[in-house]
Amino acid sequence: MTVSVLLADDQGLVRAGFSALIAAEDGLEVCAEVADGAAAVAAAREHRPDVVLMDVRMPVMDGLEATAAITADPALAGVKVIVLTTFELDDYVFGALRAGAAGFLLKDVEPADLLRAVRVVAAGDALLHPRVTRRLIAAFAARSDAEPLVRPAALDELTERELEVLVLVARGRSNAEIADDLVISPLTAKTHVSRILMKLGARDRTQLVVTAYEAGVVVPGA
User: Fold this and answer.
1) Distance from the CA of 86 to the CA of which of 11, 30, 92, 103 falls in 20 to 30 A?
2) Same domain, 95 and 157
3) Structurally, how many domains does the chain consist of?
4) Is 22's pLDDT higher than 70?
5) How far is 15 from 219, CA to CA, in rounded Å?
6) Is the pTM of this model over 0.70?
């Protein structure tokens, strides 16, 4: 099965580089290239790609608006968005996750890591590297305009064990690491994460992190 990728970036050289890299990889193809967010949304609706590589800063409509538009469209439920950012844009990273992105990459990502990310997200997994998660947490903690804590009623449906797992997910732990921490099997850890996703109505692991911090289940720095 070939994974189709939509490239959305206003820098032609960046698009050309990513396009050449993806085109040279077996099982991956570029279905379209666009230079602004509005065009990205239109292209997603036309081509229905498996993955969109979305830059944040683009004309007409920025990447976060475009990401939100794509993830909110029921007809595009199968389209996953990876937002491209830098460590200097941590606030944008948080906004991207809230907008429904399946993950994010640094714009200076190594070619092998980019290709792996596309495959991981296309397979339905979230891309949330612990190193970047720590930066995200720090950015959230430093936000002076952070909204008041909102605890979703669905959190009360989680078992004590599921709350423990949610805390570990929010701290950037992988399923294997969660299994080690709680002395359970990786399959059991994966099952817990799946149930938490279902109970909280979250699209993926990245949204669990956002929910945990916004609800105060995990406190930055604690």
Assistant:
1) 30
2) no
3) 2
4) yes
5) 38
6) no
